[in-house]
Amino acid sequence: MQCAGNRRTAMSKVRNVRGVGWDVSAIGNAVWGGAKLADVLELVGIPKLTASTNLGARHVEFVSVDRCKEENGGPYKASITLSQATNPEADVLLAYEMNGETLNRDHGFPLRVVVPGVIGARSVKWLDSINVIAEESQGFFMQKDYKMFPPSVNWDNINWSSRRPQMDFPVQSAICSVEDVQMVKPGKVSIKGYAVSGGGRGIERVDISLDGGKNWVEASRTQEPGKQYISEHSSSDKWAWVLFEATIDVSQTTEVIAKAVDSAANVQPENVESVWNLRGVLNTSWHRVLLRLGHSNL
Hints:
Blueprint: H1 8-12, E1 32-36, H2 37-43, E2 59-67, E3 75-81, H3 82-85, E4 93-98, E5 101-102, E6 112-114, E7 127-133, H4 140-143, E8 172-175, E9 182-184, E10 187-196, E11 203-209, E12 217-218, E13 220-224, E14 227-228, E15 242-250, E16 254-262, E17 287-293
Parallel strand pairs: 9-17
Antiparallel strand pairs: 1-4, 2-3, 2-7, 4-5, 4-6, 8-10, 10-15, 11-12, 11-16, 13-14, 13-15, 16-17
């Protein structure tokens, strides 16, 4: 599960943005336990793979017990399409367990929604009610937040109604084994990190460059220790992140770049400037880490 604001800090270095200053860690990987929403909806008379009910309902809204100032003291809420909610392959879950244990309070006890492959804002915690409705949720975080605007839009000319709520997240990768502007000793350095793409798309490859993107080497990919990952293979998990690793030889100050390519051939954009937006969401530009020679414990 990934927050739409993951890697927002890099956008704020280009121009100011509004939002929590996340680096590369606004993402997590867990084993969820619960009931499939498609099964629950079928129990109340909505068959699987339904796009619209006889009464014209096309969306499923999740309402939290959590109250927020953006809703003027009302509940946090979000929605997904009915077609996604009733699709067993979409794996939308009403979760009450995380990693084999009962959900704790921070993660949504006693019940939360998990919408895999979609920005985290749609996976509503502390679930109070589920509504099957005609139009998408009119909640603040659906209509006046988490939308993708071009760099030309600012807080003076923004028109929230001109964009649809963001759902799937684009292909993403980040280096996690070393930090930006880290001191390292000359020699071999292990470069490790994660890659993920929304909508259940697999990770076709992760490339590493040491010369600004002129040349690339492919990193190894795994989801389970010691087992090679194959994109969209029956042995892989389409909703989980993919871990990558490459060993590089550092003899001088070096900028290490990672970029991922998903199974639909979507590629991370080169520059953060091209995807900058006033809310700092969906920064999926090449991830860059500067390594300087010096004393290090690596």
